[in-house]
């Protein structure tokens, strides 16, 4: 069965970030944000979203104020994710795995695998706080795995979050999912770009949109941080999705739902065809409207319904 699901414009109804940021409350909770807040020419209190240090301080404040994450930091140069968009993914997939139930599924009975967890560990941290789920995070970068495990431990979530190192960069699920592992859901935010040059140009475009144009001769700060595995891979998003779908067949009986963000709409048709050819019984496309950015979640299952026992 194939089904299309579209959301209304804007964030998921359960997302905590519909209103503008309460900068006074955020600064009170995390004083290190205060130096980055200023009043613009329109008399509005704001901060410079092109400044990586400001964005990092904002993230720390949002996580502390809204999710009780007291300790959050990143190694220098690693990806600093936007909190509202990341938690939106979780709310949508919570609906997906809870279809037909009165409320979203919560608690440690829901076990989630995050492919490409990153040093920020953002999906596991948010998923534990919002829904009480258990997580396994996977990454090919040992620095990211070490940092993510440290974040889990420092926030008292060491028993709910376990991060594993993927030692074979050509693999996605193989080497991570063991024979006894079972997951209600897998998540993935695949590398968007196919090369460093493409990633750099994408960041220059973002900076221009923020009124912060840089000289073409000056290397930009990539996506406000980010290592190779976080931002680009050979073949880009399309190639990564193809690998993700291909390997999912080998673990069809161990995962209820597989899912991934698909940032480039032109990659969707090929991915959906690959899912059908892999023999999945269900697939959904969930459209997401994150401010000026359009994205979507592609999800598929080899199970006929959600009564599958995890």
From TrEMBL:
<keyword id="KW-0489">Methyltransferase</keyword>
<protein>
    <recommendedName>
        <fullName>Ribosomal RNA large subunit methyltransferase F</fullName>
        <ecNumber>2.1.1.181</ecNumber>
    </recommendedName>
</protein>
<keyword id="KW-0949">S-adenosyl-L-methionine</keyword>
<dbReference type="InterPro" id="IPR029063">
    <property type="entry name" value="SAM-dependent_MTases_sf"/>
</dbReference>
<dbReference type="GO" id="GO:0052907">
    <property type="term" value="F:23S rRNA (adenine(1618)-N(6))-methyltransferase activity"/>
</dbReference>
<dbReference type="InterPro" id="IPR010286">
    <property type="entry name" value="METTL16/RlmF"/>
</dbReference>
<comment type="similarity">
    <text>Belongs to the methyltransferase superfamily. METTL16/RlmF family.</text>
</comment>
<dbReference type="Pfam" id="PF05971">
    <property type="entry name" value="Methyltransf_10"/>
</dbReference>
<dbReference type="GO" id="GO:0005737">
    <property type="term" value="C:cytoplasm"/>
</dbReference>
<comment type="function">
    <text>Specifically methylates the adenine in position 1618 of 23S rRNA.</text>
</comment>
<keyword id="KW-0963">Cytoplasm</keyword>
<dbReference type="GO" id="GO:0070475">
    <property type="term" value="P:rRNA base methylation"/>
</dbReference>
<keyword id="KW-0698">rRNA processing</keyword>
<keyword id="KW-0808">Transferase</keyword>
<dbReference type="InterPro" id="IPR016909">
    <property type="entry name" value="rRNA_lsu_MeTfrase_F"/>
</dbReference>
């Amino acid at each position: 069965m194939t089904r299309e699901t579209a959301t209304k414009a804007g964030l998921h109804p359960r997302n905590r970030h519909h209103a503008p940021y309460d900068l006074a409350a955020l600064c009170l909770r995390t004083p290190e944000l205060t130096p980055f807040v200023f009043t613009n020419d329109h008399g509005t209190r704001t901060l410079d979203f092109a400044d990586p240090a400001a964005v990092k301080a904002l993230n720390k404040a949002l996580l502390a104020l809204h999710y009780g994450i007291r300790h959050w930091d990143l190694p220098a140069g690693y990806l600093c994710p936007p909190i509202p968009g990341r938690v939106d993914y979780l709310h949508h997939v919570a609906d997906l795995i809870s279809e037909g139930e009165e409320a979203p599924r919560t608690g440690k009975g829901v076990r989630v695998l995050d492919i490409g967890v990153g040093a920020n560990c953002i999906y596991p941290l948010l998923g534990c706080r919002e829904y009480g789920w258990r997580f396994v995070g996977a990454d090919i970068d040992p620095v990211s795995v070490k940092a993510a495990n440290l974040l889990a431990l420092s926030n008292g979530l060491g028993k709910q979050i376990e991060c594993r190192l993927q030692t074979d960069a050509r693999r996605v699920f193989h080497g991570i999912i063991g024979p006894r592992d079972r997951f209600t859901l897998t998540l993935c935010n695949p590398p968007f770009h196919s090369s460093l040059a493409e990633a750099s140009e994408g960041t220059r475009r973002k900076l221009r949109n923020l009124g912060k144009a840089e000289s073409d001769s000056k290397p930009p700060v990539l996506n406000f941080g980010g290592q190779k595995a976080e931002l680009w891979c050979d073949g880009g998003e399309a190639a990564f999705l193809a690998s993700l779908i291909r390997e999912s067949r080998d673990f069809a009986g161990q995962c209820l739902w597989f899912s991934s963000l698909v940032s480039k709409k032109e990659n969707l048709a090929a991915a959906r065809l690959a899912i059908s050819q892999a023999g999945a019984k269900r697939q959904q496309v969930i459209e997401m409207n994150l401010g000026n950015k359009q994205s979507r979640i592609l999800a598929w299952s080899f199970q006929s319904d959600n009564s599958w026992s995890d």
